[in-house]
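INTERNAL AUDIT FORM
Audit reference: QA-55
Scope: verify that the stored structure record matches its stored sequence.
Auditor: D.O.
Record contents follow.
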Amino acid sequence: MGDFIQAIEGSAIAVWVRESPSIFAYTTVLSLHAMGLAIVVGVGAAVSLRILGVAPGIPIAPLLKLFPVMWIGFTINAISGVLLLAARASDMLSNVMFIIKIVLIALAVISMELLRGRLAIDTATGQLIPSPRTRAFALSTLVLWIAAIIAGRLTSYPNFVASFFS
């Protein structure tokens, strides 16, 4: 496994992201990661909050049209995330908060898709108020994305995190 991780970190793209002085390397990849995060979580939070009762004047059915936008943000985030991971694979794959972040992201994506499905059912049946199950998925999606962001930020502070577990 160590040789595989070293091969990833030694690949041309990983070295370029990690070591290039070009603004198009690490700076741009990290900026794209932040923008993708802002899109997926920002739009997702707006949808979830509306389903939870914020801004009741906004109709619910059109919210389904926002899920492709969230997937665009997630795709930007995933691609840039893989590039950032490749640049520091050995550090990240041994970082507990990174593993927690990845698990939280997977759960958030699953919850987001379950929310989309429940919202589609609610709107197809003509419900004007989201069902309790739809609201539960909205809340879980919101909480999972927030937790993933926190875990992602904590990946930069492994010693701080380790002090809580020792």
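Auditor finding: record pair retrieved intact. The helical segments are 2-10, 12-19, 26-51, 67-87, 89-93, 96-124, 132-154, 158-164.
Action required: none
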